[in-house]
Amino acid sequence: MSVLKGRAWVFGDDVDTDLIYHNKYLAETDPNKMPQYAFEYYPGMENFANEVKPGDFVVAGKNFGCGSSREHAVYCLEYAGVPCVLAETFSRIYYRNAINNGYPVLFVKGLSQAIKDNKINNGDLIEVDIEKGLIKDITNGLELSGDGVGNLEKEIMDAGGLFQYLKAKAAEEK
């Protein structure tokens, strides 16, 4: 993966999966239709689905994706063209759903405080190197480092998700 650039959509701590993708839309099974509901119930971000552009990033504080387990909360961002989610920490279930579906997430130290201190804001142009874990806010010069994607997670993402990864590994063993 190369260095990616896009606008930041900034969220706080404890972003619940119901705020990412509300449970009233769980009957939708087509991931191409899921982005239209992203963050519809997050106060101040009700227009996210209409305004997000492919290449934009979701930037959040601690405990992103807490609450109920639902792959919809991963798919609605992935299919909206958000290349990865940046957060200080993720709930374990969101993290596993993302990796298992081949969707990158990046743990970024200090991100929660940077958001609280308004050092990164909605609309800032940011540059992200997922493999090295480097984030630069081009708008204001803020630089943060996160944990680069681990080898196993990278292999799973490169394969397109856990199922494809396991199929490839099984084929190698034959």
TrEMBL record:
GO BP term (any one): L-leucine biosynthetic process
Keyword terms of this UniProt record: Amino-acid biosynthesis, Branched-chain amino acid biosynthesis, Leucine biosynthesis, Lyase
Domain Aconitase A/isopropylmalate dehydratase small subunit swivel: 53-103
Pathway noted in the entry: Amino-acid biosynthesis; L-leucine biosynthesis; L-leucine from 3-methyl-2-oxobutanoate: step 2/4
Catalytic activity, reaction form: (2R,3S)-3-isopropylmalate = (2S)-2-isopropylmalate
Presence of keyword Lyase: yes
Primary role: Catalyzes the isomerization between 2-isopropylmalate and 3-isopropylmalate, via the formation of 2-isopropylmaleate.
Family: Belongs to the LeuD family. LeuD type 2 subfamily.
Name of protein: 3-isopropylmalate dehydratase small subunit
